[in-house]
Amino acid sequence: MRTRFFLPILLLIAAPAFSQETIDSTAIAFIKAETMERGQVMETALWLTDIHGPRLTGSLQLDAAQMWAQQRFESWGISAELQPWGTFGRGWAIERFSLNATASGSGIAMHTFPVMAFPKAWSPSTGNITAEVIHIDMEDDDALAALSGQLGDKIVLLTGEEEVDLGFEGIASRHDDDTLLDMANAGASSQSRRSYSPEVIARYRARQARLTQIYNEHPLAILEGSTMGGTGSIRVMGATVPMPEGADFMNRPSPWQVGVEAVPQFVVETEHYNRVLRLLDAGQNVSVALDFEVSWTLDEVVEENVIAEIPGIDPQVGDEVVMLGAHLDSWHGGTGATDNASGSSVVMEAARALQAFYDERGQGPRRTIRFALWTGEEQGIYGSTAYVNERYATLGGFGEPATAIGPEHDLLSAYYNLDNGTGRIRGVYMQRNSEVAPIFRAWLDAFGDEESRTLTISNTSGTDHLPFDAAGLPGFQFIQDPMAYFSQTWHGTMDTYDHLSEEDLEQAAAVMAVFAHQTSERDERMPRKALELAQPEQLGSAGLDAGEVLGHGHEH
Ligand SMILES: [Zn+2]
Fold it and tell me: How many domains does the structure of the chain reveal?
């Protein structure tokens, strides 16, 4: 029965301008019903967040999440494995943490108040300590020099007073027609690799030198204000380790590395941080009581990506591959819900819906469809870069171009990534690959969602499609509605299951599954941009994180 059902229904929809694209409307209808009427994406997301979150690279929590994801794929009849990508460093977890401040001064009764704060990842334990706090103006070398030798028994406040948003603007949003039109009309930004002016690099190095001066005095702890004033959320990532004099960007020390001992660091909620600063400015004394204990796992953790696949059946192109991916690792403030349990759950849900469709039609996809849940993304896109390096091209590192072609370069048709929060898919960033435009247009038209039609030629950066793009392979991140991603949840303590939108994630799973199926069923591989291999000596500063240099938050 099944064979008869498949062939007659396959309709050739002669799309007007670009009718070469064969549209499988049976698959599209099935996939939309499977993800939107029989969806399981929220159940997957709950397990990855409330139960196995957060999923910091190197941590036991991430191990558990990976094993659960592998079993979940297998429960759907999809083979899955954990593929090691390399030695990451030390695993870290918080065992206990509290921070209280006590203010005293002439004419006021001493009083204590709890302070909302969160430890930066890979900060070492402080135990139970109480110490005086002191504020250091990082731009004032004289003040810094005057304090030299006096920081060893202090807790240092490193940043200034933060602006608090009174909240007249809503914190969540969706792209409106104007924004999408601007994106659609955007030109191809010529610059693909990020580079920095000598002034920016000099300012960055000067700041690193001041940080080194402070860190070398081994203050008991360092506190910084969260950059999320007014939201109650605390944006927290990894402990900062100053870049030593003359070190190059690619090999600077990281707090998860064996032998690197960071100063204990904590990010304080804006309003609480500003109050302590103002108390000091008002001439009051402030001391802080910290109780902080962490556990470290193995000295060095071999990290893995979760790789699952539905094998291709076509004798001609069956060993060619279409990939869907998202990073599974997260920062540790919340449960890593919108960054990136959302993308990981959507990739898994797309896999489930595709397998259900192939079971229904009794025939697998033409090309192999592979699903990747990467790790090490937040620390430098490590897992996906290692994957591309092993198979498709020799890359020079984070955001660096390829210097050589790998053994399987011909076999990958396209890679699709999801890592911009919980928002629905509104279209695709085409990474300056204009030849895919008529193909994506035909698919989005056939998908039939008026809200998901935008194609922009421009790039987007900072996530796991980059290594594929750098290898000269079609690698794309979808355009998603912003929701409250950068305004509240991204790398924050409020990044929890509560901020996931079921309807949006279901739509995203359907779009990703349809893109994978359509790519798999094409006669041709997806068109590629011309690839210019770089000479090894050309590689260098791209490893530097824009946010760090330009003094604002990380990328994705
Ligand atoms: Zn992310």
Answer: 2
